# Entry
Amino acid sequence: MTKLKSLFVALVLTMGLSSAFAGSHGSTLDVVKERGKLMCGSNTGLAGFGNPNDAGVWEGIDVDVCRAVAAAVFGDASKVEYVPTTSKVRFTVLQSGEIDVLSRNTTWTVSRDSDLGLDFVGVNYYDGQGFMVKSSLGVSSALDLDGASVCIQVGTTTEMNLADYFAFNGMSYESVPVETNSEADAAYLAGRCDVYTTDASGLWASRAGYPNPSEHVVLPEIISKEPLGPAVRHGDSQWADIVGWSLNAMVIGEELGITSANVDEMKGSANPEVKRLLGVDAGYGAMLGLSDDWAYNVLKQVGNYAESFERNVGMGSNIGIARGLNALYKDGGILYAPPFR
Amino acid sequence: MQNNFIRKIIFDEKSRSLLIQTLTIGIFALVIYELVQQTAYNLDKRGISSGFDFLNMAAGYDISIRLIPFTSEDTHLRAYFVGLLNTLLIAVCGCFLATIIGFLVGIIRLSSNWLFKNIAYVYVEFTRNVPVLLQIILYYSILLHLPQIKQAIVLFDNFYLTNRGFYMPSPILKEGFGIVLGSFGLAIVATYFIKKFFQRKQEKTGKQYPVFLINSAIVIFTPIIFYYIAGMPIELDSPVLKGFNFKGGMVVRPEFLGMLFGLSIYTAAFISETVRSGIISVSKGQREASQALGLKNNLVMRLIIIPQALRVIIPPLTSQYLNLTKNSSLGIAIGYADLVHGFGGISLNQTGRAIEIMMIVMLTYLTISLIISFFMNMYNKAVQFKGNA
# Structure
């Protein structure tokens, strides 16, 4: 199916049909407002990041970015339509204008930022590539994996990191390419491969869904930097600012101690940055082309970064990832948003 | 003069149709030109790079199902050839297997044995009415449920059946193997003369000889005898379980087998119907006449029915070969590293050159299909009635 989709998108591009709406829209913001909802490119299903829950409602740390953007633009975090994308079609879908923002555990790299005509606007999760094996294999380090069969999602940075890592360490492997996270789980559990490699967060998420999570271990080696963040089409800086600052507002919210529960009383705070952020001091919304209470809506409806993290992937959730790198800079992590002024 | 010209265009049918056709072609060319221009413009506007320079860049990923050496440092162009060879491999093996199954089933469906006939009937109706993609996934899933690598099923000491593939020893050719190969070639040449010899003898005496048996024996035993004379110049490299996987030997991956079973079993159902219709199309009188001449049943089939049936069978058989080849692009569903999966999928994603890569892949399929059609058309000409055009 994914193949069909990418073919279709390529065809649409080829036929210049897309020129109809590419030519007409002045700004993405106007298009989104006119449509009345945000088109959000999401994962096909990765627990904690982008996954529909039992009731069919999308949840996850990536999904929260889209909800924040919808809250900022419409004042209503639910005005989002999710478009599940595989790792292979995600960029084409964004390029062709089918979605407004791609928030799908996507690594920010130089070639994607330039050559593909995209702009990454921030990082909502600092990740790194890891390996998961069955504990019965008795492997304790990735350097013991010489000769293993490795399940890997095609069209990812992971694929290239893996090739580099094994080549650099003089090890051989058999790559078993799969299309989606769930196919990878199936192949790994069936024993088609010894190792499943993807971003460590993805491994933890998969492991949480296995019949016996304790029979699988995530190896200590992290072999790459994977800053995951939302991306938009290149060339519309206003839209890039809106998406980027929707995410920043969540981080600043955490810094200032504003949560979805106390945001109303924080409006009365004497802290000038809180007043600017929540729109008590007018004028900052207009700079982005939004209403003054945009950040208030984000924090009220989606919550700050800490809330989103704990709800979706944190120790309180069934995935159980520690904050680590993703803690605020003042708590020992590297999460850092530019000042709101 | 001018008036005359216009009148001619309006009232003369030949001129009129010429004008309309020219206009149609002109508009068509214009539309194509516009499309190309628009695409280039759109790509440029979105800041998406285009061009074919990516072909010489390092691919950066590995392909484990391959016929030629490939590492992540090789270029996308080489990845293309790896994929192309895998596509050709599955197409050739698939067509071969589908033809054998198809002919057998087609003939069985015409047999008078009630049980066999109906088993063949159920097979045909079941396989050709279920989408081939589902069948491929079914066979692949079954293969994935074979024992895991540590519990491999052992056959004949050094063949291993696991859900990572079918491992077998690979032959290592040593000095002197040329002699065996040469003897094999000579044996094949010899069969031609032996056949001629017995044919002449049969024409003179009317007596039949078991030519096929004799020739088979020659082709099989000559190389074996020379193999021992040359001092057994083949060594077997057996797979050995070391660490995570078997080392050494050869392996047939479940992805390949899943594709092979799926494609050939599906296509064979269509081929069997083609074969059946071909045989039925030969008039009953032909069979009766040859039986009246005293030919045995299998000779009636081989000498009278099949040659005539082939004339009906070949054209639709060609389309089945084309279908199978094109359906091999479904390998993407189970991770068989064919042209669409590797070059048309992974390279596309790593470089973002969707239009260029899709064009290359489509042109490649077109070329493969045209080549198959060309050879099948030549074969078709060879089996047609001669001299009564």
In short: Chain A touches chain B through 49 residues (CB under 8 Å). Residues 12-25 of chain A have pLDDT under 50 and may be disordered.
